[in-house]
Amino acid sequence: MNNGNAFRTFTDEVGLYLAGLKVVIYYAEPLPSVVDERLRGIVARFMKGTAVECEAFQQSLAPEQRSLFGIYGHWAATLAVRQTSRNWLLSGLIGAVIANYVIPAKRNVEVSLAVYYHCAQKIDESPEGLFAEAAQFARPGLAEKVAAFGRRTDVHLKQFGWQEQKTPDGVRYKFVW
């Protein structure tokens, strides 16, 4: 099977898997969960696609499926801090890129990006480098926003409505606005 067919098969399989997931159920799962690992694998495979394949993958997702990648992104950022893992953080940020492929008019993408910026600093990673890498997987308009956000020097969780909480399992990020 050539790569094009393999990626189409991957996209179809992802669609079937995501169709069986509900946001409310995933959101309530413990961290980390089996779903986190599965979505991490999906993001890793997505990153290996060509630009055309990635675009087709993005177009295949329904809004509720994108929401799953948004949740995944923040869970992955949390796991990145708990495990000091750049790989989890990059995967989560690319999950956010997938979630924000179509940006509703009233959404402020910067609010969600602040968590990744903060987490990069917590694990001693360059936000600029991390965001530039993730921007390669975003649509042009979003790519510019992601890369520019990574270059900022004035990002603090509180100003974007987030709070870092200490739990028995480790840190957790909560939107408090």
Question: Can you summarize this structure?
Answer:
With 177 residues, this protein is mostly helical.
Strand order of the largest sheet: 1-2
Low-confidence stretches: none
Number of strands: 2
Order of helices and strands: HHHHHHHHHEE
Helicity level, as a percent range?
A: 55-70%
What structural class do you assign from the helix and strand content? mainly alpha
**Please, what is the average pLDDT?**
94
CA radius of gyration? 16 Å
For the biggest sheet, the summary is: 2 strands, antiparallel
- β content, as a range? 5-15%
What is the tally of helical segments? 9
What's the number of domains? 1
What gross morphology would you assign? globular
How far apart lie the N and C ends? 49 Å
Structure write-up:
The protein has 177 residues and is mainly α. The chain has one domain (3-175). It contains nine helices and two strands. It has helices spanning 3-19, 23-28, 34-47, 51-60, 63-83, 86-99, 109-122, 127-135, 140-151; strands at residues 162-167, 170-175. A two-stranded antiparallel ribbon has the order 1-2. β1 and β2 form a beta hairpin. α6 (86-99) packs antiparallel against α7 (109-122). The radius of gyration is 16 Å and the shape is globular. The model has no long low-confidence stretch (mean pLDDT 94).
Entry keywords:
177 residues, mainly alpha, two-stranded antiparallel ribbon, 2 strands
List the topology elements:
Blueprint: H1 3-19, H2 23-28, H3 34-47, H4 51-60, H5 63-83, H6 86-99, H7 109-122, H8 127-135, H9 140-151, E1 162-167, E2 170-175
Antiparallel strand pairs: 1-2
